[in-house]
Fold these 4 entries.
Entry 1:
Amino acid sequence: MTSAKKFMFGTDFREGSRKAAGEAELAAARAEGFHAGVDHAHREAQGQLAGLTGQLARSAERLFAQEAARTAAVEEHAAHVAIATAKALAGAALAEKPLAALEGAVRECLSHARTAPHLVLRVHESMVEAAEELVRKLAAEHGFAGKLIVLGQSDIVPGDGRIEWAEGGFVLDSQQLTALVEQAVARVFGHGQP
């Protein structure tokens, strides 16, 4: 076992034996302390900046998500307003010219069925006379020489109709078209009307 030694600082603290620090050493110590403080402040500022940048990024993500949700809601509402407007305009147009849509459909069908032996047009029973006159006029314009038959049916909505010929046919069904448009809007926005 070794004997205990008294801890010695190695510096003599008696009067007059103390070494005075030189100005250069003092300036170096101050500079070192200053640089250490600047480095510490720089690291602390970078940490705070990183934290604030993260908060800003999260806030921006939240705002973008909220804006996207608002935009989607506005677009969905606009689609439903457009459907309601289209229904209102279609109703007004149907009241003004109940055979306008059928006229376009008959024109298209006559271009395909010009040589067909017959053409059958099924309309609402209240529109048979007007439809017969329209079909005769359009058949003459398109050079259709086949037999024209117009039948009235109570289950067909005024303005709608069915056109049939030997090789084909055409159905004009506003309710089915409305349902298809509403289904398409529901598919795009993921649910039904607001």
Entry 2:
Amino acid sequence: MKTKLQLSLAALALAASSLASAQNLLNVSYDVAREFYKDYNAAFVAHYKKTTGRDIKVDQSHAGSSAQARAVADGLEADVVTFNTTTDVQFLADKGVVAADWAKRFPYGASPTTSTMLFLVRNGNPKNIKDWDDLIKPGVQVVVVNPKTGGNGRMAYLAAWGYVRSKGGTDEQAAEFVGKLYKNVPVLARGGRDATGVFLQRNIGDVLVTFESEVVSVNNEFGAGKVDAVHPSASLVTENPVAIVERTVAKKGTAAEAKAYLDFLYSPEGQEIAAKHNIRPRNEAVLKKYAAAFKPIKFFTVQDYFGSLGEAQKVHFNDGGKFDQLYTVK
């Protein structure tokens, strides 16, 4: 007959064995998706246990999207990447780290959600900022992410450029407008969350240009009423692409788990969690349910004015490109 000590040791061994057998996934993601994936991961773990009977653990890594892509290329063992610009995933595809046809592996070009760029201003909107034109006025300080290090910054730049084009302006007029805007930028942030810290913790700037989803994160972290959200008259549709990191899942044997993780993003439950975090769902029923949160904006796409994100990267953000020509380091 076993003693209580032997039974306790056996139970501990069984628990340790169960933990050891649980698969671990690493999702390497962009800066302002922290809170979304915290909630999403908890839901996925429960879903996975219910549907497979097995345990799974999901770890997160967050920073500027482009910096994350470079880290994965350099060996960070992500099972999946969930970014905010397709060029960052394509960068990994070009390196052979994700599948060449990654955009065909999941619906909607492997982008389960979208967002857009808007403005966060200080409570009461003391500078009366209503649209992009207000960002180039004298005395207005604009906080944005460095487009070299984060997709948030690239989307803000392209949204400002596209705004001019959407009103019938030329590329030359757009370049002049964006140049004026960056003259009002006191400091370039490394990533979206860093930009929020610059704006709210360091109290720099009058307006923060960021993803629509950051409204919820700011309210949760800093308390409601610190900022007002201003939706400009026109803005860019931004996609949130995802991919399995083939190099890692082949090594760890986690391909099925990684696919299940990304598939769940498209489920009604995954889409609803996204909507609660002010990330626009693809599911029309969920989008309709949260219509009050997603203000109507005149949307334009990267394809409308830049051909593709890849082309925009070459023309605007590669070394010596338009951004380097327009922005002077202060």
Entry 3:
Amino acid sequence: MRWSYAGLTGIRLSYDDSPSPAVTASLLRLRDRLHTKYPKGLTDCVLGYRTLTLFFDPAALSRETLLAAIEALDDDLDAMSDFRQDSGQAVELPVWYAEESGQDLPAVAERSGLSVDAVIALHSSISYTAYATGFAPGFCYLGEVSEQLEMPRLRTPRRAVPPGSVAIADRQTAVYPSLSPGGWHLLGRCPLSLFDLEKSPPGLITVGDQVSFRPISRDEFLSLGGTL
């Protein structure tokens, strides 16, 4: 693990390994142990695919003290055998897969050499790890999709992707929480709200969660609050 400065009151920790559930688990483990050790000194912790950025209050916690604690905990991570890589919450999202709700579904099927039903079955058969949040509030990058469904991003992003759109790009999948531009391939739509400031936490998915997709019908999509 390497570290670098992140402003005057921040430290960014980075793994050289490729993103994986094991890397995410290790970062979460380190974050939780440090937050427990310094509940007042740490002001924020931001997780990325292979990074953990820690922000601290210099009046309560010095950079040197924090770095020493990180080094000690990093050496001890492998010994924490009681920590499960799938310790995040299990989140199941209902999805109406159809060309009406996911306009790229036929194109994805054609490119992958699969039928539309096979694409739906393959995409919904995997439990995905939430690796990182970003792009928009509530947007969480999930991985990894099957190699058969690996798709390059669109050359020209759409100006407006409907909220709840379930999409794939490269080996990732995600749900757009709100109306926004986007360059991913759309497969369907989820009727659930992915981000709500009135709730705590506001995001339905957090880093480390295990996310699965459950195919539903058009009628069930509408009955769950989905809109066309």
Entry 4:
Amino acid sequence: MPQTLIAPTAHHTFYWRRLYSPGSDVCRVHQRADGGWDLRGMAVFHDEGLACDLGYAISVDARWVTQAAHVFGHCGERAVDLRFHPGADGQWRVGQGGGADADTGVSASACPDMDLNFSPATNMIAIRRMALEVGQEAQAPAAWLSFPELRLQELPQVYRRLDALRYQYDAPTVGYSGVLEVCADGAVVDYPELFARTTS
């Protein structure tokens, strides 16, 4: 019998605590009428000497391909208002504080998943989009918003599905390797050394 993830309920809320610095994250996942999904959350934490409150809103289509992302709030004394979307030129583009869109230099076709360094919520996007079978492995380079720079860049990633609810995850350019445990919806439950889900 194939080991598949179940579709999230139309409205689901996930909570995590940070393991490497004080902080927490809450994300609400809503299904839209067109079959796509919206992830809306808030991460509040203290890291790199900065007190941060960063909200995020990410829209994906029915195949879990990212359509747009908005990150807003504060990173220390810096006000944050970043809006990302794939441009007609095939590149991720960013608008800041209502200004004109700029090329990020990251390919939207090569990096279809938006990944936020400060939140475990976005691993769900890649996991749902790829829908790996047990034993399968895939390269999943992401459009990764680094912290504390908050600059979009390409992040090489590899996922290998070990069983129904565990993935070997490697991001070699940032020196991370670990086994991610997820729930049946595909949201991370245990992200070794970084995040842990606190309640369902």
